[in-house]
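Limitations
The structure tokens in this dataset are predictions for the assembled complex, not deposited experimental models. Users should treat interface geometry with appropriate caution, especially where small molecules or nucleic acid strands are included. An illustrative entry is reproduced here so readers can see what is and is not provided.
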Amino acid sequence: MRTEYIEKLAALMKESGMDAVLISPGEELTFFTGFSPMMCERFQGLFVKQDGTCFYVCNLLYGDQLRSELGEGVPVYTWFDNDEMTEIVDGILEQQGLKGKTIGVNSTAQAFNVLDIAEKSDITFRNAKPLLEEVRIHKTLEEQEYLRQSAAIADAVFLEALDFIKPGKTEGQIMDFLFERMQARGASFVEAIVASGPNASYPHYEGRDRVIQEKDIVLLDYGCAFHEMMSDMSRTVFVGGISEYEKQLYDLVERANAASEALAKEGAWIPDIDKAAREVLDEQGLAKTLVNRVGHGIGYSTHEGPYIKQSNPRRLERGMAFSIEPGVYLSGEIGMRLEDIVMINDKGETEVLNKSPREPMVVCPIEGYHG
Amino acid sequence: MRTEYIEKLAALMKESGMDAVLISPGEELTFFTGFSPMMCERFQGLFVKQDGTCFYVCNLLYGDQLRSELGEGVPVYTWFDNDEMTEIVDGILEQQGLKGKTIGVNSTAQAFNVLDIAEKSDITFRNAKPLLEEVRIHKTLEEQEYLRQSAAIADAVFLEALDFIKPGKTEGQIMDFLFERMQARGASFVEAIVASGPNASYPHYEGRDRVIQEKDIVLLDYGCAFHEMMSDMSRTVFVGGISEYEKQLYDLVERANAASEALAKEGAWIPDIDKAAREVLDEQGLAKTLVNRVGHGIGYSTHEGPYIKQSNPRRLERGMAFSIEPGVYLSGEIGMRLEDIVMINDKGETEVLNKSPREPMVVCPIEGYHG
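Predicted assembly:
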């Protein structure tokens, strides 16, 4: 159990008037407890109270497993399929002094169960996702160091990937190559998007079947966990050569990325960072193709606070780490993205953690081809 | 779009005083629309209104995909990362006449998003999972026929598996065998638990690594989709032979299963069916080891209504299909389960869809071994 983070959460609850926070299985539960069980439709979760004590509620099916995972310090209460869940939970909340109180929920809490409990036990449930993000938004010295090392793994693998990408390979083969090479360097969790040709125009492309062609664009977006700290970088690679039009678009994306990174200083107003990239893209009227935020925080998970978007009115602080990833996406035609992780370190300096080349990289050049 | 089921849902909304139902991505959305997109932390879902009309709300990132999947009839509204989501959704709900109204939620709706929307737009959200289950709780003639065929695939594969299970095979190899054989018979979705030795004592065992030993018990629990209708059966297999103690436990489980199946007639009171199995198990004081309900409905998903448990006070009706799966589980020691799918058909007759042997099956007998 990460008790120092439980204490931070308890302090934040006090500030925001929550008497407890419910953390259902998922990444947030793993962060606090070191494990996360399967979750089916049966209500379960860890309750953290404002005084820093915790208890767990689950179905009888999972009781033994939870007790052995959580150990002595955290009581585990169970309900049985033949009981009415809300009646049993009502008794538990009564015993824990939470009936009629305000309880926050994490990102995986199931609305249908929470609403049933609210009705039965007169609970006011509220969104506690921002609190759970705030708890770990300022990275410790150790977390900062692992973020650097995680980014270094991604960088090293990029250079290796440049030798691997060739016409005839599938997107899936390139993904598997990235996975293997990150794992070979000690990464414990790996993820990747490899989007080639028109597929690069979909920011969240999920396929792996297209075969790389000569003169393709290949967008790589990947990362891994190293000592629990995630990396996440994107580079756009040109197969055979780069056309004038591609060069022009790439230059725009690179300058958009540079404009946001230049503003990412301690104390910077986050909405301005999003805006800076869009202003560059709008030199060509292309800001509207950037359909997502310019960046997201990173650490124990790939997406966490602080989100780099105009609807996040706050300033950058020491210990924050986040992506800067503007792109241009012309649906079904062409897409490019340049993504680095940026960190405001403990001295208040800005570090761009990814050191991979920013210039357009051409692999397998075709003699005489300039697009 | 399954319009006949949308109409059923609309009628149920009227009865229960809901003005709309929100269906976020997952199996329930696939059921109604034929597809389900990825869901991240960004709010999205299909709203079905009491008048049977629908609209979809999602992040701009997913807008194009959703429009192409949903076609002309369903308007898709998007919000952008740089907007405050709740403000945009508030405008949409206002336009759709839903501000201040009561909206039901499905099983994947995220509590944190729903609570934020409730606060901003004065919505009363309620659990609509029971409505979504009710919509399809009575299987049509066609669904009944595919349930039979899906069960027949599982039965056929069981006989093949008896030749495959041997000391030295891993649980994972047996799982893969079940998957391949079901797929070879036309199944489009396959799932399995293979729990050997002490692992059989955990009803929801998830491993695949243990190597089968002589004198093991191997619990198989598996099924597949055939024309969208799921099968789900469990059999307990004895490697080398069966001891007197095992025979005695198995006999108890078999009689518990038979007792519940004997009661499963049109009009039967569901809590009695659960109770019947437990009464048999309690001849040996073992009802308390059955930590889950005796059964669950089945159809488009493996677990749906009607749940066969004492906290489900209703009667069996024509068209209902469900599992009967009592077991005995002595944690870390021994476990057994016997599961069939039972259906009340359109004539009101009870059909046990699984025809696999009920007697204890011994594979690779050891000469002279009787436990």
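Some entries come with short summary sentences. For this one: Chain B touches chain A through 46 residues (CB under 8 Å).
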